[in-house]
Amino acid sequence: MYINIPLNNFFDHTPSKASLEVNCVGRSVVKEHDPTVDRPHGLPDYQMIYIESGYGYFKFGDTYEKISGKTVILFKPHEPQIYKYYKKDSTSLYWIHFSGKDVENILKELKLYDRKVIPVNNGYILKEYLKRILEEFQNKPTAYIRATRSYAKLALIELNREAENASKKNSDLAIEKLCKEMNMNFFKNIPNEEYAKFCNMSVPHFLAKFKSVTGTTPQSYILNTRIENSKNLLITTDYKIMEISHLVGFADSMYFCKRFKKIVGITPTEYRQKFQNSNNFTNET
């Protein structure tokens, strides 16, 4: 399978006046031959290659480097582009060539300008943006050029995020994933042993890692999340204070009021009176 769509100024390389312009987009699954690219002087535009799976062999300096899947290779204008693939690897890849008056600044802002080989953590969203660019140029719907520019910028933003995640330790990612779960289940009383098991850590290691990533303890994290959710309920519903305390995970409404005042500075009733919307909610305790 091979799809390659040259666009706009790809052949004459006239500089684009747009902020960012996609010049060429393609996708390939290497199965029938061993393709080789040999551009010792590169091209006048930028090129991003996303190896989805398999391997690519890229020559940096005097030697070839074997690059595995879930990796992006980023070439600047006029940088040597010498690489090859082997059909035995069944490599799947996407690529785009792009240019524009703001590309250098965009890449520098996203901390990508000085990077060449960029591992990604997952790649699903990045691939979806590249697929969208390809589909836009294949189908040419209304305003497709503008859409491809937007998708290209979003792809670069996603690459920045993926690069940041890929550089994090697995333990950091485990804590971040746990925090998302805690935000969804803040009303549940879950012991540290369960949290540690979720992160595949011992309890002492988990507690230390959680504090280093979030700056607080799991109990304080849950408490603050409950208070934040209770504040929203206080000003958007007519639930009684006792009902809200139970909804956010407090068995004792008096304890809820005490913790609320300590963190927020006023009681739940005072908070409701101060911030309630135009509806006349009941302030029963």
Comma- or semicolon-separated keywords:
285 residues, alpha+beta, Jelly Rolls, Arc Repressor Mutant, subunit A, 2 domains, six-stranded antiparallel beta sheet, four-stranded antiparallel beta sheet, 10 helices, 20% strand, disordered C terminus
Describe this protein's structure.
It is elongated and about 75 Å long. The chain has a six-stranded antiparallel sheet, with helices on one face. It has a four-stranded antiparallel sheet with strand order 3-8-5-6, with no helix packed on it. Residues 8-13 and 281-285 have low confidence and may be disordered. The chain is built from ten helices and ten strands. Helix 2 (124-139) runs antiparallel to helix 3 (144-167), helix 5 (192-198) packs across helix 6 (203-214) and helix 8 (241-247) packs across helix 9. The chain folds into two domains: 2-166, Sandwich (Jelly Rolls); 171-275, Arc Repressor Mutant, subunit A (Orthogonal Bundle), CATH 1.10.10.60. It has 285 residues and is of the alpha+beta class. Strand 5 (55-60) and strand 6 form a beta hairpin.
